[in-house]
Amino acid sequence: MGCKSKELSTETKELIVKLNRKKERRSYISDLVDILWSTIDSVVKKYRSSGTVENQPRKWRQKLFTARNEVGLNHLVKKNCQAPLQEITTKFNDNKEHSFSSRTIRRKLAS
Which terminal residue of the chain has fewer beta carbons within 10 Å of its beta carbon, N or C? Predict the structure, then answer.
């Protein structure tokens, strides 16, 4: 019984739900699948509320500073290698829908 490190496969979740519907004990399911009781309870609870054991898509914020922005920044720095950071930031932010701070530009150049 390890720590929370990876998602259970859909097949494992289906097996848990199937055994739970057959009224098997949590301890039996836990020993069979080798996971914690709390995980079994979470899977069953999710199945009862949503009707499925499929993993839901994750929702996260999209990155504003894309790979294309990084290429453009590197190109700008190569053209203006002696320019101060504030000037590079100003030139980079021209014609952008989202402006970036000089600290963000410095971080991206350092990485």
Answer: C
